[in-house]
Amino acid sequence: MDSDSPYGDATVAADLLDDYEPEPELVDDGTLPGDRFLDRELSWLAFNQRVLELAEDDTLPLLERANFLAIFASNLDEFFMVRVAGLKRRIATGLAVPTNVGRSPSDVLADIGRLAHELQERHARAFRESVKPALDDAGIHVENWSDLDEADRIRVDELFTGQIFPVLMPLAVDPAHPFPYISGLSLNLSVRVRNPKTSRIEFARVKVPPNLPRFVQLPDDESGRLRYIPLEDLISNHLDHLFPGMEILEHHEFRVTRNEDVQIEEDETESIIQALEKELLRRRFGPPIRLEVTDDMDDVTLSLLMSELDITEQEVYRLPAPLDLGGLFELQKIARPDLKYPKQVPTTAAALLPSEPSDKPDIFASMRRGDILLHHPYESFSTSVQAFLEQAAADPNVLAIKQTLYRTSGDSPIVEALIDAAEAGKAVLALVEIKARFDEQANIGWARKLEKAGVHVVYGLVGLKTHSKLALVIRQERGGLRHYSHIGTGNYNPKTSRIYEDLGLLTTDDTVGKDITRLFNELSGYAIEKKFRRLLVAPLHLRKGLIKRIDTEAANARAGKPSGIRIKVNSMVDEAIIDALYRASQAGVPVDVWVRGICSLKPGVPGLSENIRVRSILGRYLEHSRIFSFANDGERQLFIGSADMMHRNLDRRVEALVRLTSPAHIDELETLFEEAMSDETSTWWLGSEGEWERHSRAADGTPLVDLQSKLMTEIAARKRSSR
Predict the structure, then answer these.
(1) What is its EC number (predicted)?
(2) Which among 463, 618, 687, 695 counts the fewest CB atoms within 10 Å?
(3) What percent of the chain has pLDDT over 70?
């Protein structure tokens, strides 16, 4: 599911998906209504609906719209694989299913099924009635077999015989051949054939090879058009090659989604890697939870599939072909810049530019001049964070490097820098979170590669994921040892840094350096030091620290002092945080919440949350940074970091927020909030009943401001500031 597009790889939906675990105990004095939370499952589906609305927006570049269709499909797959699967698992095993909206689990599942059916049908309709005709008009044709003339079919026959037929593996189902295992998310053909000699009707399954292009480019017909045919359509019309002598009665597409969540039981009898590898093997054989079939599938075939897969009618999704529109990611490879977003090149952060253009950049010298706030992808990751670690690896005065790795790219220069540092004799510690969902196998591989190079690799604390984004460099200088630190909101991943919006702080502040040192000691050893001065760290102190600051704003408002709260997160789910925000609103505190995905908070409810506004921005880049800002009676406190407001982040992960101290940095992020919450900016607004309304045009029909494009233009135009 990996792609060069926002939202569209396996890390993104996982970033919004939580596990079902006991929720934190709420301190409820009875003054807050019982129905004060929005359903988080339906809120997630509403997030994916906003993605779909981008695909339906004919003002966006056409291939980007096709890409958003693929993103929607990929996201929904992971929602079923994790969240729906987890809900069904707990119901089936009799475990309690926490729900913050006071409804039964069966009602929650029914609502999920109803809305998911509606969205998948709308998704298929958007492709069939809007995007596909527009692609045709642009000279990019996704053909059906019936569209091909005789000359085309002859050339395609040669292509099939030479490049596709040898890879196919038809599997019969009869007393000697049991029903085959259907792998999760694989695209398949169900085939019913009749033996003309015996008149016996048989069933077979043909798996569409996932290692071949999903859309096969057709030979040039000199029309100037790019023409493609879905691989499954091509195979369907050559079934006589696979079943010679048999009469083909029916053939249809189908696709199964399985429970692919990982439940790791950590104990002292085996290493975490051994436990995880065992669970990853089990995940391949998780029970089916969704069956997608083409809407023309005959009842006999459908009944057989439902019986063999143990699927209920409610878990069947009938859709027009083609299934699995995640395959549309492939269209991004087409060289049609006129149908894509205009190319934008990140700029090097002004604070990292050398004094003279001819000078070589020196990250350490720039950091010594003062804290540096980075804003990706508008400012380059490669010339900032990556350059910082590469310079540290090559610098003979650097004694040690410590870093967390949650997700990184397959050809990671970050990992290579750590390996180079270790091979150069430096002390290198890498905390590799091998339990990062859907990146588990890749992270195991990186951990072993790092260990072979001499890097000290640790896997964090039992029962917790390490999600914090931290890098610490210890350098010998004339005055002694100096800490060079990076604290970020996003992963150390050069690939996703080009499409994820994230913040990062580069600092030589000794207080931050000592805080991070203490945290690494806790993660790699047996230290129990919990005192942090500029960091808020989960799971022990982050929720408490935020609620304390929210309560302070409420007290200030009641005392007539300046107050205000601004929060930017991917998800707002944690009930204790939401309740604190409700109480702040009741006290008169203006609260702005900027959320990308799930939001269980109800804004604008009289007597509860009339002072709370919730907005969402989706677009070219995936909004990923987390910001927490408190007016604090005029002495504003502002934090950035890795934590979302979800149970897992606050209770079952090691997360870190860092407080910014530079007035210029605080002003910059406050201005960012002003623009994001402005009525002049294109956003979605959340209503009190959970409905999201898109605001993309002014009353006169003119487009509202695209904040991401505006930021790219403004940041690229910055001149180096005098320090």
Answers:
(1) 2.7.4.1
(2) 463
(3) 86
